[in-house]
Amino acid sequence: MPTYKEFPLADTAEGLTEADILNWHVKPGDTVTVNQIVVEIETAKAAVELPIPWAGVVTELHVEPGQTVEVGTPILTIDVDPGGAAAPAAAAPAPASAPVEEEEMKPLVGYGSKAVVTQRRARKGAAPAPAPAAVAAPPAPAAPVAPRGGYVPLAKPPVRKLAKDLGVDLHALTGSADGGVITREDVERAANGSAPAPAASTVDTGYDPATRERRVPIKGVRKMTAAAMVQSAYTAPHVTEFLTIDVTPMMEFREKLKKSREFAGVKVTPLTFAAKAVCLAAKRTPDINAVWDEAAQEIVYKDYVHLGIAAATPRGLIVPKVRDADSLSLKELAVALTQLTDVAREGKTSPADMANGTITITNVGVFGVDTGTPIINPGESAILCLGAIKDQPWVVDGEIKVRKVLQLSLSFDHRVVDGQQGSEFLADVGALLADPAMAMTY
């Protein structure tokens, strides 16, 4: 007798309320194993692949790619006992002294909340509590039709049930609703042998030819970024300071490192030097690495640097962190930054890797921009912006020479950081980039 379990959308990050379904990696009729990846979702922070905690046969996918689903909503049904081997009657009774446990769902490996377990101890003298019964199976569905070429028809669960009851193959239909979604009327017409209604475009681009405008729903990473920036801009009083420096010595030092055996194969960029400079300068100005706790009415000083790096990805702006960046050498920082940016561009950064930063660097110089006035990330007190390094005239020993010039800008929370501390920190970072040998004095 089949035993069905519904796989709900799990909370992959603290406080997650919803996510978008990106891609299914399984289809009805597929056999899956424990912890096999079955779906890719996009949360407000990142794209995440979800494994399933049971083995069995997929019987139904409840949502389509592109849909937004609330946490806890069933997204997939699986038959965990397709052969009917595990009959409830065969279960042995539990000892009276042992607690009866019923497991709702095992935790996902690396994701989601803990398993939900209820415990109830039998009373003294009571009859032995029976073992938990298997999940009651609904009426056995018709054999699932494997999607053709990986295509999953767009239809809501009630429409799927109607098609199954009427013997209509959804794969043979073209939906008449927006986005090619198959409706109840489409199924009924097919069951009656009527001609299908004219189909709308199978891809809803949001473009309206009449207005020559395209509308895109606000969700995922873009929604999270917007909310965070509004919160920061209207909560923390921002102050931004600027500094222009000659980084010719830093660029020359970079060329030396490229030729050294120790840095062979290691990608050293201006961002690498900036990351090291921020970590060193933060030790001398701890206010820059502190945060304002409004609820507790405290300023929290942090004896570590979880360095955020703003990264532009196909999914939008994200800020993954280099954990304990202040404990890393220049080479270790270079390797960590390369790995971090590569993972971010692939859209594989986990929500955990974007939480609990202490200070951030954003590099607009890679786009050829001189500088900017960045907004502080919530939960931090400062963000450093790197501009483009350009050849410019610069006075050296009373003579005008062409030098490598960089503009820095620092935005900080004036509740935590006063002008003096902000200026001292920015001056320290500038001095370290203008002359890397200054690091020997820190």
From TrEMBL:
Pfam families: 2-oxoacid_dh, Biotin_lipoyl, E3_binding
Cellular component terms per the entry's GO annotation: cytoplasm
GO MF annotation: an example: lipoic acid binding
EC class of the enzyme, as a word: transferase
Residues in Lipoyl-binding domain copies: 1-79
EC number: 2.3.1.-
Signal peptide: none
Domain Peripheral subunit-binding (PSBD): 154-191
Domain of life, per lineage: Bacteria
Sorted UniProt keywords: Acyltransferase, Lipoyl, Transferase
Cofactors demanded by this protein: (R)-lipoate
Family as reported in the entry's similarity comment: Belongs to the 2-oxoacid dehydrogenase family.
Descriptive protein name: Dihydrolipoamide acetyltransferase component of pyruvate dehydrogenase complex
